[in-house]
Amino acid sequence: MDLSFSDLSETEARFIISGVSIAYANALRRAMIGEVPTLAIEDVRIYDNTSALFDEILAHRMGLIPIMTDLSAYVPTEQCSCGGTGCSGCTATFTLSVEGPRMVLSSDLIPQDPSARPAYDNIPIVKLIQDQKLVLEAKAVVRTGKDHAKWQPTLACGYKNYPVITIGKNCDGCSMCVDECPRQILEVKGGKVRVVEGMLESCSLCKLCERACLGSGIGEEPEIRITTEPDRFIFVVESDGSLPVKEIITRSVLFIKDRATELEKQVIEVSGGTVA
Question: Would 229 disulfide with which of 17, 19, 21, 162, CB 3.0-4.6 Å?
């Protein structure tokens, strides 16, 4: 397996993974979405709410606010020594007290632990008019996206097969495929169609160029072919800010490795032998 990054920041990553099956690529995608733990607000105690929104709607909105998560400091409640009652090792506590007129934002959530704060300060919660008030206490816990979407650490996470574009020797450079390409990755040079330098990975595999080539009437088969490499994939991952995208990828790979190791142990135990 080989992995190379073309773009990597705190919140976004684009990388190519080679030498793996489509099953592994999809397992990696699912692990990044549903198996990496993060903090999210789960319990809200509302002391005063005279806003236009019901308590349940406010609690739902706050649950979807990404919380910056230090997984070395917080563990899931079922693994905590407190037995799930809620302590500083498994629960992050926030308070909020705002009077109108003004917009209540995620920055108004005051964290007990400064490292576990909202990832963004400008997320609107509710608009208060004159004499309206909102006072509450919220608690965030660590879980995974398979429990609820609010624990998903990714905003976008997907992959596609690495494209392969082949131009036949009988191409006459009519440019019909060039005009049809929605991402402008083709050009005519030297009387033949070719891929614009550095644009191959932008191919969406729509095959509109193939249809255009067939429509030109040159022959019964298109002179441009769009295929894919079966063991090479392009991934795009965007974090919601709760975790750095590099940590999301790393923890996903380790999760798959741990599951594979556990499966191997179970198979050996059942078969009473070794696994080749």
Answer: 162
**Burial letters for 87-110: b for 16+ Cβ neighbours within 10 Å, e otherwise?**
eeebbbbbebebebeeebbbebbe
The CA distance from 178 to 108, in Å, is: 52
pTM for the whole structure: 0.89
What contacts 40, CB < 8 A, 6 or more positions away? Answer: 63, 64, 65, 66, 67, 140, 141, 143, 148, 150, 151, 242
Same structural domain, 42 and 145:
yes
Q: How far is CA 147 from CA 87, 165, 274, in A?
A: 21, 41, 35
Token digits of residue 271 = 């078969």
- CATH number of the domain residue 205 falls in: 3.30.1360.10
Tell me the C-alpha distance between 51 and 274, whole Å: 64
Task: Give backbone dihedrals phi and psi of 159, rounded to 5 degrees, phi first.
Answer: -145, 165
Q: How many CB atoms lie within 10 A of CB 42?
A: 20
* Interval 13-51: pLDDT, tens: 999 999 999 999 999 999 999 999 999 999 999 999 999
Q: Which DSSP category does 6 fall into?
A: E
- pLDDT exceeds 60 at position 226: yes
| Residue 83 belongs to domain with CATH number | 2.170.120.12
Residue written as token pair 């509302």: 46
How many contiguous H segments (helices) and E segments (strands) does the chain have?
Answer: 5, 12
pLDDT at 274: 63
* pLDDT tier for residue 218 given thresholds of 50, 70 and 90: low
